[in-house]
Amino acid sequence: xxxxxxxxxxxxxxxxxxxxxxxxxxxxxxxxxxxxxxxxxxxxxxxxxxxxxxxxxxxxxxxxxxxxxxxxxxxxxxxxxxxxxxxxxxxxxxxxxxxxxxxxxxxxxxxxxxxxxxxxxxxxxxxxxxxxxxxxxxxxxxxxxxxxxxxxxxxxxxxxxxxxxxxxxxxxxxxxxxxxxxxxxxxxxxxxxxxxxxxxxxxxxxxxxxxxxx
Length: 214
Description:
single chain; alpha+beta; 6-stranded mixed beta sheet; 5-stranded mixed beta sheet; 5 helices
């Protein structure tokens, strides 16, 4: 870890320490991915489910974005150069139903994390295939990971495979285990006990409604 240069202090959220390394933090083992069977799909509150094979996904328009990474475990890594498919390109090909306001992100092997739709459809959010000019390594989410720069990095799911569009905002895996529903690093939204009463009620109601549907 390294001290924060005062000239760049406005890029480092409170409670964070800079690193030049990229620590590997993973829930479970790194999955093995068979690209012949890999798909990315969008389902839920959509007019029609959309899915891409790996070859079809690689043919989508790409963009390059440079952004900072802020991990809830209190390290930050600045100036990460990503290349991948912008979320706006995905959304141009998905017809959402009007009631869709939230997204459950599904990833291998059984990881989930929740996002507000407004946090997903930002210009700097993409499905990354490369990091600093190289194919994304499996330990860091390769072949494809979500990158949501404005939120703590657990929201940027590794090995991403699907977006499920919802009218409720149920907690994902880490959110069910004590982490914050939104995860804004500038507000240090790390843990569920920091949530407002209204957010905690929304969390419980969303989980209940999903249980009733299943």
